[in-house]
Fold:
Amino acid sequence: MSSPPAARNQIAFLLLLLVAVAQVFWWIYDQGRYSRERQQELIEAYESERLAAERLLQSGALGPEAWNAELAQRFPHLELIGDRVRVSPLAIAELERERRSHLNQYRWEGAFFLLVLVAGIWVIRRALLGERQLRLRQENFLAAVSHELKSPIASLRLAGDTMARPELDESRRQALLERSQRDLDRLEDLVIKVLDTSRIEAGGVSTVPERLRLAPLLRGLVAEGAPPRGAMARAEPEVEVDVAEELELEADRVAVETVVRNLLSNAHAAVAGRDEPRIVVRARRSGATPTAVELVVEDNGVGFPPQESERLFEKFYRVGDELRRRSRGTGLGLYLVRRFVELEGGEVSASSPGDGGGAIFRVVWPGTAAVARRRRRPQARAAGQGA
Structure:
């Protein structure tokens, strides 16, 4: 439902459009009326000249034989029929043709101006709607960040207070230390995502291509990204890595690791709560170029509506409203995936049959050294929930 300011803006745009349409039609009508009046004035002038020429003939000052020699040159719109002078039908037809030509010109100009005006109003309205949606996503982002900060901080405070008790046994103390480490990792992931986003948008990220062996890199990231025991997941996801040992990619290591970590984090979040969670990571040569590599991360998680596939990679965007969210995240993970892939000249896409149908995220790197270079390089990994 539209908010009162949005409704007022829509009403204002509608009124402006109606006024513009009415003004254009009035202008066309006024020009048509003016052209008719002008045509009538010329016809009356022709009639006055016809009467004057006819009086000359009747007075005998000028005979019919001299008509073509003098009056025909002075009054080309008149013609002599016997001893009578009349306005040429061709001249009247020419006046009507000119009037219609001018009227058609006014109509086309009016339609063009109206089209430009409507297009301008549409562009402004779309910009305002985009600004409103961005503002809503920013509000959701702030709500998400508040939650992502409050939860681990509260958990760390509780763990610290508990570990301060002298009667606490060693096993309980170790469990609290592990939970505190997870909370610190969660805070670190959030800070890194925000910093990486800031660096990318400021143009402060530089990519340094190098030859990477994907098999050990992906296996290491999969092992690193597995959720720790004690997390909210019902079962630890089964993660399958399908990549040839000899497969290599020429790309920036930090950018590739950031992309893979965020995709894995997004997949782990998507399968949380599933009875048989499963994630598949595949990499292979792409047919785009001889050096291109395609990475696919597939899960059997919650999925998403197909129409949301493009918007998933927008900054701050998350499916649904932050106040009613069911999973953690800030809406920066997949945004960073897209930006880091684009820095390398690659492409990223997502697909899903719908809610509950799982999802497939596909990344294609060109695998060449033609990479955008900036002034600085991202310093640390960006992990955590992407959607």
